[in-house]
Design brief:
This protein is mainly beta and about 100 residues long. The protein has strands at about 10, 15-20, 25-35, 45-50, 65, 70-75, 85-100. The two termini are about 25 Å apart.
């Protein structure tokens, strides 16, 4: 599995990637797709919160909360290109991470 570092882009040929072992806190990821004609999308972002307690993982829309140690699947399958082009890469970037408030873990 790839390791996400803030500001480093991971380019894949797949529409899904697992973000494993995120530390406790709030993490913002960004996705930009490119078609086989070199046209790039505007960025889309998702925020994932990792908490110490065992919450129910809810990914309503693309966002949600997971338990520390659980993986989060980032899904870019809803991305599309304008015909006749097809998507050829997905660039996954961890944009930010925030430590939780110690008074409200």
């Amino acid at each position: 599995m790839p390791v996400f570092n803030i500001g480093e882009t991971i380019t894949t040929g797949e529409a899904r990637i697992e973000a494993e072992e995120l530390p406790v806190g709030d993490h913002t990821f960004q996705l930009v797709v490119e078609d086989d004609q070199g046209q790039r999308s505007d960025p889309d972002r998702v925020r994932i919160s990792v908490r110490r307690t065992r919450p129910t993982a809810i990914l309503a829309g693309p966002e949600g909360t997971v338990e520390l140690g659980d993986a989060s699947t980032l899904d870019g399958t809803g991305s599309s290109a304008v015909e006749p082009a097809t998507l050829s890469s997905w660039e996954w970037t961890l944009q930010s991470s925030e430590e939780p408030n110690p008074d409200n873990p």
